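Exercise 3.2. Students should predict the tertiary structure of the chain below and write it as structure tokens, then compare their answer with the key that follows.

Predict this chain's 3D structure.
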Amino acid sequence: MSATLAVAAALLLDAWLGEARRFHPLVGFGKLANFAERYLHADSRALGSAAVLLLIMPWTLLMILLGFTTWHVAIDILVLYLALGWHSLDAHAGQVMLRLHKDDLAGARQQVGWMVSRDTADLSQTSVTQATIESVLENGNDAIFGAIFWFIVAGAPGALLYRLVNTLDAMWGYRNARYDRFGWAAARLDDCLNFIPARLTALSYALAGNVRHAMACWHRQGAAWKSPNAGPVMAAGAGSLQLTLGGSACYHGKLEIRPLLGTGDAPGIDDISRALGLIKRTLLLWLMILCAGEWLIGHL
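Answer key:
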């Protein structure tokens, strides 16, 4: 089965079934990571690195072994489906937009709080909208295009490894007293795995929207963001949509002055739908490129 068909099948499963509500493997992995942290945590890069390897290597090796079985095609599709978060991202952002249209700001704050790590209790309508769009753009890479990239490169083991590392980074990749050293390996490994996918996602956002603005914002603003991979993705996405994102935000009770991203007006409620539309156009672009690539390889 071609990689393109496997990706398309996984996307269709995600659109049809959505995220597994019970016994999702990534949720289970998160609980396992919490258990490991309880016994292995120390202010040490070495122990943090050991914890990362201990958590990700057995599952990755198991996936490699399963690739030699007769049902490897079904396993590939299932693993990629579980690694994808397209339907979940679309559903969460859609719920924020629905509550904002109903003037339910408290409900919108609660909903966006499930998508972002910043404090949401006192966000204005514009700030809720902005946080939602930022999450859509960044997680478009983390939960969709990064997983697809590593699936194309290394099959189901690649997609699984990527999402496990991404999960550990989301849990441990903070620059604070508890995780600055222990979470160092998870954060750096996630940066490495995301380096190429993030830039392909940024380029795709540009091609799927306003190319000139997206490329200019990526060039001028991407490197100023605290994350070397989220910066290009969000700057290109904001430029493609011709919106202004970034700026100050409160995390764990502390105000952070973040750079501005993009160009144009502050986002309105319906710009959430535009951001989701950008994700859909980018997915279509990737599928077209994969189809064209396989066709060319087959005719060489």
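Discussion points: The radius of gyration is 19 Å. The chain has one domain: 3-298.
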